[in-house]
Amino acid sequence: MIGLLNALAQFEPLPFHTLYSGERRAAMQQAWSRSYSSLPLASALNALVMAGAIGGFLLFIGAALFLSDLFLASGFALFFFAFSLLAGFHLPDFMAQRFARTVESDLPLALRSLALYLSIKMPLEQALAQLAGEGYASARLWKAVHQSVTAGESVPRALSQTASLIQSMPFTRSCSALITYYEEGGSSESLISLAEELSHQQSAAGREQSAKAGIGGLLYVALSSVLPAFALVLMVAAGPVLDFPSSPPLIWMLFLLILPLLDALTLGGLLLMAPQLAGLFRSESVSRAVSARLKALGLQSFGWRQAILLAAALALLSILISFFIPFGGLTLRIGLLVALGPLLFLALIEGEVMGQVGALESELP
Question: At what angle do helices 330-339 and 341-362 cross, to 10 degrees?
Answer without folding.
Answer: 40
